[in-house]
Amino acid sequence: GESVGLHLPTLSVQEGDNSIINCAYSNSASDYFIWYKQESGKGPQFIIDIRSNMDKRQGQRVTVLLNKTVKHLSLQIAATQPGDSAVYFCAEIRRTGGGNKLTFGTGTQLKVEL
Amino acid sequence: EPEVTQTPSHQVTQMGQEVILRCVPISNHLYFYWYRQILGQKVEFLVSFYNNEISEKSEIFDDQFSVERPDGSNFTLKIRSTKLEDSAMYFCASSPRDGRNSPLHFGNGTRLTVT
Fold first, then answer.
1. What residues have CB less than 8 Å from B40, skipping those under 6 apart?
2. How far apart are CA A114 and CA B25, in angstroms?
3. Which residues on adjacent β-strands are paired with residue B90?
4. Which residues of A are less than 8 Å from B108 in CB distance?
5. DSSP annotation of B18
6. DSSP string, B40-73
7. Distance between CA B49 and CA B66 in Å, rounded?
8. Distance of CA B5 to CAs A109, B13, B21, B107, B108, Å?
9. What is residue A2's predicted lDDT score, i.e. its pLDDT?
10. Is the CB of residue A33 less than 8 Å from the CB of residue A64?
11. At a CB cut-off of 8 Å and minimum separation 6, what does A59 contact?
12. From A76, B50, B78, B103, which residue has the greatest number of CB atoms within 10 Å?
């Protein structure tokens, strides 16, 4: 069935390096994508979002890239810090008949090594 | 920065008992949601709520579940007769506009343990 999923369950990076977390989606009708960060014992925290009419959006130390041709989304974190260690979820809003159902991917654990 | 707050942080209940999970969404938000996350799994949609009615619900949200906005600040999720498989983290979220036009802001969750 249609789903949003992540390629790598765990990503380990050295402090100061750049991180790239990938996500594949299968519903070409999805028009809004969001990256969330979830630290242990906390709820998902909004990082950055992007609409399907864009292919890149930048925030503070983060960049989201959207490739609609191959239905791929990535989150780039510059100069990764220990505080970036968390599980990262991509999520999509599907253009269903109504409502606001946010569908999450399975998550990637980012581990930052000192 | 405004936050979504949830109480209690941890709820232990016996199978068959009723539980009410409480949430205070961000004050100027109009759309409210409940999601759940079974340990080690992804976050799953339960229900969305707008203008004092359910706008969408998932297959998980059966007759045992209900939501209510009893006053201008609280948003509750009730499970009438809990089952072991209801054990999960339950997250409340809110957004100022339709979820297709603004990101959802989540609380830190209530861990429900059904024994």
1. none
2. 37
3. B36, B110
4. 41-43
5. -
6. TS--EEEEEEETTEEEEE-TT--TTEEEE--SSS
7. 11
8. 25, 21, 11, 5, 7
9. 42
10. yes
11. A47, A48
12. B103
| Among the listed residues B87, B97, B88, the one whose alpha carbon sits nearest the alpha carbon of residue B48 | B97
Q: Give residue-wise pLDDT tens across range B51-95.
A: 999 988 999 999 999 999 988 889 999 999 999 999 999 999 999
Per-residue pLDDT of A42-70, as tens digits, reads 999 999 999 999 999 999 999 999 999 99
Which residues of chain A approach chain B closer than 8 Å at the C-beta?
31-32, 34, 36, 41-46, 49, 89, 91, 93, 95-96, 98-107
Task: Let me know: does B5 contact B107? Beta carbons within 8 Å.
Answer: yes
Tokens in use for A59? Answer: 């925030």
Give every residue of chain A whose pLDDT is below 70, as ranges.
Answer: 1-8, 95-100
